[in-house]
Amino acid sequence: MDQKELKKGLQNILDGNKEWMDLVKNDTTGRFEQLAHGQHPEILWIGCADSRVPANELTGRRPGEVFVHRNIANMCIHADMNMLSVLDYAVTVLQVKHIIVAGHYGCGGVTAALSREQFGIIDNWLCHIKDVYRLHAQELNSIKDEKEKINRLVELNVKEQVLNLCSTSIVQNAWQVRKNLAIHGMVIDITTGELIDLNTTYTSKDGLIKGKSEQILSFR
Ligand code: CO
């Protein structure tokens, strides 16, 4: 990047901030003043890092209303200390009422996981999506259209990540002491902006014990 381009890019970012500051300064509702004293979001959003799927805009929520964790392909990996720390803070301290795992159709991470190419260090992250593929290989292999196959894996991946969250000690311990924690799986249609509910909501660990294979997801 040459100096001119660097200066212009940096100025653009700072100019954008000035616009935001004007909005904060001219706000008459007092919400920003209130936010300076703390946050009480009711939603934890776990979404893809993709620039097209911003949590607040998609849910029509203002600053202070959504606690956010994003990574490539909205994964909830049990050994990911980053995700676990966000989850614990959101569930235990902020006492959020809804956790939304949000995938999106046409996800680049899921598309890459479906290919057999090497992309670099991300391949080790994509392995977790390949695991989801392996779990649902029969269904996915029966889909001939590549785009359709990717989008179905996007949906199945969301459902698996919801189960991953449900099986954490953090969520199960919260369910022991309160009834108002729901975990939802959703998918965004980026062509319309629609947030589609996948009807995979869990509100207690009892919901997990439907079949023998799912019993193992519950600690007690
Ligand atoms: Co994505």
Structural summary, described in words:
This protein is 48% helix and 14% strand. It is an alpha/beta fold. Strands 2-1-3-4-5 form a five-stranded mixed β-sheet. The protein is globular. The relative contact order is 0.12. The model has no long low-confidence stretch (mean pLDDT 94). Cobalt (II) ion (CO) is lined by residues 48, 50, 73, 104, 107-109.
How many individual helices? 10
Mean pLDDT: 94
Content of β-strand: 5-15%
Largest sheet: 5 strands, mixed
- Identify every distinct bound molecule in the structure, by name, code or SMILES: cobalt (II) ion
Total E-strand runs: 5
Shape: globular
Helix content: 40-55%
Helix-strand pattern, N to C? Answer: HHEHEHEHHHHHEEH
Q: Distance between the terminal alpha carbons, to the nearest Å?
A: 56 Å
Structural classification = alpha/beta
Spatial strand order of the main sheet: 2-1-3-4-5
Unreliable residue stretches: none
Rg value: 20 Å
List keywords for this structure.
220 residues, alpha/beta, five-stranded mixed sheet
Short description:
The protein is of the alpha/beta class and 220 residues long. It has 10 helices and 5 strands, in the order H-H-E-H-E-H-E-H-H-H-H-H-E-E-H.
